[in-house]
Amino acid sequence: MAHTESITEVAGTRIKLMRSGSESGAGSKPTMLFLHGAGGASVWLPFMESLAQQFNLLVPEHPGFGDSDTPDWLQRVDDLAYYYLDLLEALDLRQVHLVGHSLGGWTAAALAVKDCSRLASLTLISAAGVHVRGVERIDNFMGNPEETLRGLIYDQSIADQLLAMEVSDAERERQLKNRFTTAKLVWHPRSYDPHLPKWLHRIRIPTQLIWGDHDQLFPPRIGEEYERLIPGATLTLLPGCGHLPPIEQADKTAALVVDFVNNVSAGEGAA
Amino acid sequence: MKFFNFHLMPYAELDVSKIRDHGTAWVTFPNSNYDPVVGSKLYNRFLDELEYADQIGFDGVCVNEHHQTAYGLMPVPGVLAGALARSVKRAQVAIIGRALPLVNNPLNIAEEFAMLDNISGGRFIAGFVRGIGAEYHSTGVNPAESLARFQEAHDLIVRAWTEIGPFEFDGEFYHHKYVNLWPRPFQNPHPPIWVPSQGSAETIAWAAKHRYTYCQTLGAIKTVAGFFNQYREEAEKSGYEASWDQCAWSTTIYVAETDEKAINEARPHIEALQNEFLRMPLEMLLPPGYTSLESYKHIQPEMIGKPQTIESLNDAGVIIIGSPNTVRERLAEYQQLAGFNTALVKTQFGTLPADMTRNNMDAIAEEIFPQMQS
What's the CATH number where B211 sits? Predict the structure, then answer.
């Protein structure tokens, strides 16, 4: 399925926005907004293509990432969360199935805590944002690029493939920009908001949590904490998967998202 | 030329192969390698050395600040400067510098420095730095905020020193309902401010604009000359002519009877400093945001931590090692080349033991000062 890419001003900030299919056919499918992790969203991944079969999928590149502008107001993850609330209004998106991975998962949770009124469901994949005392995490700002990537992936043959890929200068610059913005947002406290857990009970929409069982950056224990704090949330672990389920186990992860949303929609239909 | 004795206070009694095995002496180098019995002796030895520097005619003594590292044992330099403010009778006492962005209340630094200025009777020099990138791993302060915090902390400290309180300060990072410094600094309007840097264009311009003394750390003399010229150009842009007094060059000097003897004696200790104590991976040295994205794009990983020999450092004019005659000639030549009136001299470096440090200090005082000091 063809997707479109544009650089466009949304809610006062120029961002890169990728969308599935043609806008004309979008009306018939449920809307899904995917918020990417620290690595950015410079390319339309097979994971996105799978979701695009079922959904009117929107994948913005966060302000401060890739080809999007870096606004002065961007200082913390909450700023991103408020930005996406503005974006939902600006594009007048309703009944949105919100999916966030890692940094995008934290952003999605922070958004949902503030206002769920335009959301139909929430899926957090390997989300940052919540801290569990005593859980050991790797430091993704201390290693070199290769060490960092290897730490995020369980199946090292996939890491080998990714490392062997040729990276253009433009893409390298995007990666550097992503790294700088990520550090600015998550440096301290490292990748969490100590106040977020207090308010996760405000997420009153169906919520699914998907975690690689070998995630070393945000280990499954953090998924369990989200499960404990968000009413009715269910955690699904992916065996043999690290911190990047949309890359390492794209098909399985997409299938989990599709099944979950279909169940939510069926439940609504029954009610 | 004025001579300041600059001490890094390294954990000098270390088998440096341990640093090599671990990969760095910074941030993650386990403190199981620190023996308090050894450390206690080192602190007192190093303080003795700086007191001795005062006795034999150095114009000033300098300490600085680094955190969680065997490279230098001075996370709280005010403790050492406090001891020296009493025991150093004649020379100036400088902290070059204190890392402003790393504290959450810069008024603590304004207070600490004002106390040192009072106790020393106006012999204190206040150095302001951002701290190196590794410090942002050690302290958790966000490197992306480093420069803005530095500037705001500076503004707050200088206002606290110069304005009658109480007044209110509301910055982006620092918020104070009451700023009302007790004690006020001894020197009027405040202690001299020195700004050490490795040569960042922004820092040079900023120091020149404020007429602060610019201290160049770790650099080959030709590069240093370029930075000092840049400072003078920036001063001109600000409408004044900078004097050589406003430039200080930080180097290492080791003097022995002959060039060969000096090189041989200093070699393991210089190379330990350069290749072991300073070693760190790029990601530790430059966390994202410590430099601008634009500057970072120009940094090549191979530029960091390239092993050096004492000859390569000496030939490039990063350090001056040699006979009294060689050291005098080169120092005079470098002064003319780069244009500076203060030398910040490490007389102890790396693993250099106490007796060799004393001999070096004596040689500098006896052989170099008579012709070079003014």
Answer: 3.20.20.30
Distance CA B238, CA B231 (A): 11
Owning domain of residue A101: 3-270
* Residues of B with Cβ-Cβ distance to A173 under 8 angstroms: 297
Three-state DSSP class for residue A136: coil
Are A187 and B282 a contacting pair at CB < 8 A? Answer: no
Which residue of B lies nearest to A70 if distances are taken between CA atoms?
B293
Residue B205: count other Cβ atoms within 10 Å of its Cβ.
Answer: 17
What value, to the nearest 5°, has the Cα angle with vertex B320 and ends B7 and B63?
A: 10
By the CB < 8 Å criterion, does B281 face chain A? yes
Exposed, middle or buried: residue B372 (CB in 10 Å: 0-12, 13-18, 19+)?
middle
Q: What is the ipTM of this complex?
A: 0.93
pLDDT at B295: 85
Burial of A88 (0-12, 13-18, 19+ CB in 10 A): buried
C-alpha B329/C-alpha B355 separation (Å) is 26
**Per-residue pLDDT reduced to its tens digit, B320-364:** 999 999 999 999 999 999 999 999 999 999 999 999 999 999 999
Give chain B's domain count.
Answer: 1
Q: How many domains does chain A have?
A: 1
Is A187 in CB contact (< 8 Å) with chain B?
yes
Token digits of residue A223:
């998924």
Whether residues A183 and B142 touch (CB distance < 8 A) is answered with yes
Nearest CB partner across the interface for A141, out of B28, B288, B293: B288
Which two structure tokens, joined as six digits, stand for B260? 């060969």
